[in-house]
Amino acid sequence: MIKKLSMALIILGAAGLAQAADVRSLRGHSDLQEDSQPPEPKRFAKDGEPIARDYVQQPPLIPHKIKGYRIDLNSNKCLSCHSWKHYREAGATKISQTHFEDRDKNVMANVSARRYFCTQCHVPQAGAQPLVENTFKPVTAISAE
Amino acid sequence: MTDSNSNQCKGFMCGLVGALRRPSVKYSVGTLLVAGFVMGIVFWGGFNTAMEMTNNEEFCISCHEMNDNVYQEYKDTIHYSNRTGVRATCPDCHVPKEWNHKVVRKIQATNELLHKALGTIDTREKFQEHRLKLAKNVWRAMKKTDSRECRNCHNYDYMDFAEQGRRAVAQHSQGLEEGKTCIDCHKGIAHELPDMREVDPSAVVGSH
User: Is B200 helix (H, G, I), strand (E, B) or coil?
Assistant: First the structure.
């Protein structure tokens, strides 16, 4: 009985192993026993022109580095250029007026808490190639083609 | 004259003053000069050495108020870790390089010793409570000296705008034109910012 059970366990284990070997990450495969190769760190574009949007209501992408820009309860570094007070002087894109509304559509004197954490929607760009093919095309209304 | 004075006056202080005013009968002028010269070097060197001992990072963060608050925050910033490995330590930014300014700053620092003894900021909560006031002190000092300590390393004259990013060029040219100083824009680059509600209300979360 014990012999049969252990036999079954070994077969099951082998099947499991074979299956695990078939699963491969798109980010590359490395054996458990070996040290994995660290991926090349992504380098964010230092500074550039605003990036065109690909669909209506897309949060604009951040065309510059944001390393060290803190967003916390005390202050928001992004707003020191993108706020309505500073955007002209800084030559920055101003934040949308929708950002002053709370969820009950009350307009507030400054950025609403639900819009305060910029990087929830707006992200900087690195030259990362898509891991799978993407056939997305921008809508004709905003596409240059 | 000297003798008559010391005769009239009695007591330890008068005796000492009398002894100091009386010319030496034992030692030659040469001996006194050399001894004075050597003692001068020893005292002056000792004074400066002692001052320099309080002028390095290990000394600054030997006090937990600095180590647990500002130092930990600073470790996340570019002045601590960057691609070239050049570092600015606490005194590089917070203590002037020139001797006279340095002594003035060191005398001011005795107030910090008092508050260390009083335990004014001996917990994180107390520190956060005082943060705006402390930050304003540093900003005021930097504004007053035209960001002198920044300029020990960062000098407008040697800044190559062609090497800077688009945003940096625009901001730096404008700042230069308007006679701005580093700290006017570069607040909170080495430590977290205090509650900025009253400093820049446009850069904080809105309320009803």
Answer: coil
Q: Is residue A23 situated within a structural domain? A: no
- pLDDT confidence tier of residue A19, bands split at 50, 70 and 90: low
Say yes or no for a CB contact (<8 Å) between B192 and A100.
no
For residue B124, give its domain range: 61-152
Instruction: Please check whether residue B17 lies inside any domain of the structure.
Output: no
Distance of CA A13 to the CA centre of its chain: 38
Place of tokens 């407008």: B156
Residue A11 has pLDDT above 90, yes or no: no
Are B90 and B65 members of one domain?
yes
Instruction: Please indicate, yes or no, whether residues B142 and B71 belong to a single structural domain of this protein.
Output: yes
What's the domain count of chain B?
2
Distance CA A129, CA B167 (A): 26
Contact B202 A116 (CB under 8 A): no
Rounded to two decimals, the pTM is 0.79
pLDDT above 80: residue A144? no
- My answer on whether B74 and B119 are in the same domain is yes
Whether residues B122 and B140 share a domain: the answer is yes
State yes or no: pLDDT of B29 exceeds 80.
Answer: yes
Contacting B residues, span 179-198, partner chain A, CB-CB under 8 Å = 188-189, 192-196
- Searching chain B, which residue's CA lies closest to the CA of residue A68? B77
Q: Which of A27-41, A72-86, B82-96 shows the lowest per-residue confidence on average (mean pLDDT)?
A: A27-41
Instruction: Indicate if B73 and B145 belong to the same structural domain.
Output: yes
Pair (B78, B136) in one structural domain: yes
pLDDT of residue A17: 59
Query: Which segment of A114-118, B1-5, B52-56 scores lowest on mean pLDDT?
Result: B1-5
Q: In the numeric block, which tokens belong to residue B107? A: 């005398």
The C-alpha of A108 sits at a distance from chain B's nearest C-alpha, in angstroms, of 6
Least Cα distance to B51 among B86, B112, B97 occurs for B97
Phi and psi of A107, rounded to 5°? Answer: -85, 130
| Paired residues of A124 in beta bridges | A62
Please report the ipTM that was assigned to this predicted complex. Answer: 0.76
**Which residues of chain B neighbour A76 with C-beta distances below 8 Å?**
203-205
